[in-house]
Design a protein that fits this description.
This protein has 7 helices and 8 strands; from the N terminus they run E-H-E-H-H-H-E-E-E-E-E-H-H-E-H. The protein folds into 2 domains: 53 residues, no CATH class; 184 residues, Glycosidases (TIM Barrel), CATH 3.20.20. It has 253 residues and is α/β, with parallel strands linked by helices. Helix 2 runs antiparallel to helix 4. It has a 4-stranded parallel β-sheet with strand order 1-2-7-8.
Length: 253
């Protein structure tokens, strides 16, 4: 299973495996591609049974991308946290932006099947392989099992922390809870492999730490008693998650 969103296609060799996922020829193609440092395998491996994380639904649901910094962390709202219909003080998304996010989510919930025909928000009926998103086809698999649907992972802010940036400051705690569960529901009802970051049901926070792969138990703590979601356990300096001041945030407990 590979994340093909982290490295662009430019100068990357597309493997052409044959046979099943366990066949020597396919494994050789994986090794050869890994040697080039290229991980954009979703398009080239469709039909192979190899799963790829789907960044399109992640970004449409959350807003922006996993690489946003500074004010973009606030301004780039997503489908669940106020894009156009409930803008925060920095939000500038148009109705068209919101409708496009809906298209991306519908395509991904349909399994990202290349041949699946989607009626878009512009009333065009197109197979997903013919809909462009950032230079790649929106439909990139032959079988839903090759698309891994997710909205949060260890190497980005948790969904709850992401929503702390993007939801308007006046959003009530009850509505924050609803937004969180809406994000989880998109994953649950999507065709393909549903992937949940542990603690999504607890509104898990990593105190805005973006990548906690090596951050230790203090930031990765999970309280299954639901008494605490680990928000606000870090004293931030000037390097706060892209420069955002701590007063931008609200207590989500």
């Amino acid at each position: 299973m590979f994340d093909f969103s982290t490295v662009p296609e430019t100068a990357c060799a597309t493997p052409t495996p044959s046979g099943g996922p366990a066949d020597q020829s396919q494994q050789a193609a994986v090794v050869a591609t890994a040697g080039t440092g290229c991980f954009n395998w979703g398009y080239g491996f469709n039909g192979s049974g190899t799963g790829s994380f789907n960044p399109y639904i992640r970004d449409a649901v959350r807003g922006g991308s996993g690489f946003d910094t500074g004010n973009a962390l606030v301004a780039n709202q997503g489908w669940i946290n106020g894009q156009n219909d409930d803008p925060n003080a920095s939000g500038t998304a148009s109705v068209g932006d919101l409708m496009w996010a809906g298209d991306v989510i519908k395509a991904s919930m349909a399994g990202s099947i290349r041949s699946y025909s989607l009626t878009t928000s512009r009333d065009a009926q197109l197979p997903l392989k013919r809909i462009d998103i950032g230079g790649s086809p929106l439909g990139f698999v032959t079988d839903p099992s090759e698309s891994v649907t997710y909205v949060e992972n260890h190497d980005n802010q948790t969904l709850s922390d992401n929503n702390a940036y993007k939801l308007p400051l006046t959003t009530t705690q009850d509505d924050r809870d609803r937004v969180q569960m809406l994000g989880a529901a998109v994953v649950s009802f999507s065709q393909g492999v549903a992937y949940y970051h542990a603690g999504i049901d607890t509104l898990r926070s990593k105190s805005l730490d973006k990548n906690t792969y090596d951050s230790g138990d203090w930031f990765n703590r999970l309280d299954w008693s639901y008494a605490d979601n680990n928000f606000g356990v870090r004293v931030w300096g000037s390097g706060l998650a892209g420069g955002q001041p701590p007063w931008r945030l609200t207590n989500m407990r």
